[in-house]
Write a structure and sequence with these properties.
Elements lengths: L3 E5 L3 H12 L3 E5 L12 E3 L5 H7 L5 E9 L5 E13 H12 L4 E2 L4 E6 L4 E5 L4 E4 L1 E4 L6 H6 L6 E13 L5 H7 L2 E7 L2 E8 L3 E9 L4 H6 L11 E2 L6 H14 L2 H8 L5 E7 L6 E2 L2 E3 L14 H19 L3 H30 L1 H5 L7
Parallel strand pairs: 1-2, 1-10, 2-6, 4-12, 10-18
Antiparallel strand pairs: 3-5, 4-5, 7-8, 8-9, 11-14, 11-16, 12-13, 13-14, 15-16, 17-18
Helix pairs in contact: 1-3, 1-9, 5-8, 7-8, 9-10
């Protein structure tokens, strides 16, 4: 009899793991706390070679291509240009592709996990409202702010890295021609004092930007993470919920700090949003018949570049281990965990070491891309 698997979290990592587990023959259901499919808010995903397996599973979906990398100084002068091809996808488009490949009928929405329990034969997820789902394996893929991780490993929590990321998306046609020519078709980096900007192409003649800015912990960070209803968010103030005053201050800072063509891009994003940059590590990824994958286990700051790729690797390697052992879930998890723990530890430690050794913004110039 095939193993039953409950996946907590219906984002990229959870859907990817569910898809691979389903294709090994497992009986899989995904439980997502949000009641609706995510909107396209301008988040982009780098598609390095390690995600080729994911692309093959999903079939065709729109991809943005950059054939060069450009580095600009604070005055807008081009420091250097390097031929280097990268592919980017819209986060929302990739999510839809995964959801279609898995089947929407396997995803249960409006299910927020509130408890986890297990005995020697099975594990169970408890959801708000009283529903209990028992399975041979529970896979926790509920992201950086993971409730599952808090339940299993309460001492492993997100630690603020000292800066935030403003993100947004702009259509090339809304930019002045000079700005579009400077930024289109390339990954562009702008280095500024204590911050930097990265611009990358997205499908449909769109440009995504992320602006990393130092921000001390305390009142300034609290204010930045407070949404338009006055609610303080733990990690991200999503698109459409950032107060107008915060957006205005961000755009004024861009106009003051950036050369015109970068400032134009930032100022024309219709719904920019902001997120706190954090590090997350765990001492273990397996607790009995329950495991943590993706950002629920390890979240790395830039410039590690590998968050999405690591989540994909966690999922398909877990499915491969389950496929080899069938219902012998503890044996599969014992085989799977050591390499994934080592991968996660090296990812987070490497990114932190780069930031400490030369300062985050200096280090990023030595890396081919940042996500």
């Amino acid at each position: 009899m095939p193993p039953r698997v409950v996946v907590i979290g219906g984002s990229l990592g959870g859907l990817n793991a569910a898809l691979h587990l389903y294709r090994t023959g497992a009986d899989v259901e995904v439980f997502e706390r949000n009641g609706h499919e995510p909107r396209d808010d301008g988040a982009g995903v780098l598609l390095p070679p390690s995600t080729e397996r994911l692309l093959a599973e999903c079939g065709a979906f729109p991809v943005g291509v950059a054939r060069t990398v450009r580095h600009f100084d604070a005055q807008g002068a081009l420091l250097r240009e390097e031929p280097r091809a990268h592919r980017f996808a819209s986060w929302a488009a990739l999510h839809r592709a995964l959801l279609t490949a898995l089947g929407r009928d396997r995803v249960r929405r409006n299910h927020a996990v509130v408890g986890l329990e297990q005995d020697g034969r099975s594990a169970a997820a408890l959801f708000r409202g009283g529903r209990i789902e028992r399975a041979d394996l529970v896979v926790c893929a509920d992201g950086t702010g993971s409730t599952s991780r808090r339940l299993l490993l309460p001492r492993s929590f997100p630690r603020y890295a000292g800066y935030v990321a403003w993100r947004g998306r702009v259509h090339e046609s809304s930019l002045p021609p000079s700005a579009a020519r400077a930024l289109a078709g390339a990954v562009s980096f702008l280095r500024l004092p204590d911050s930097h900007v990265r611009v990358s192409p997205a499908p449909g003649h769109l440009l995504d930007f992320v602006w990393y800015r130092d921000l001390p912990d305390g009142r300034a960070l609290t204010a930045t993470l407070t949404d338009r209803t006055g609610t303080q968010r733990s990690l991200t103030v999503p698109a459409g919920m950032v107060p107008d005053a915060s957006v205005r201050r961000m755009r004024e800072a861009a106009a003051e700090m950036m050369p015109p063509f970068f400032a134009e891009l930032v100022s024309r994003a219709p719904e920019p949003y902001v997120e706190q940059v954090v590090d997350v590590t765990v001492p273990r990824m397996v607790v009995g018949r329950i495991c943590l994958i993706g950002d629920a286990a390890f979240t790395s700051r830039p410039p590690a570049t590998a968050g999405a790729a690591k989540a994909v690797e966690d999922g398909w390697s877990l499915a491969a281990a389950i496929g080899r052992t069938g219902t012998a879930v503890p044996d599969a998890l014992a085989e799977w965990e050591p390499a994934r723990l080592e991968r996660g530890r090296r990812l987070v430690a490497g990114a932190c070491a780069l930031g400490r050794s030369a300062g985050l913004w200096e280090s990023t110039a030595k890396w081919p891309f940042i996500v």
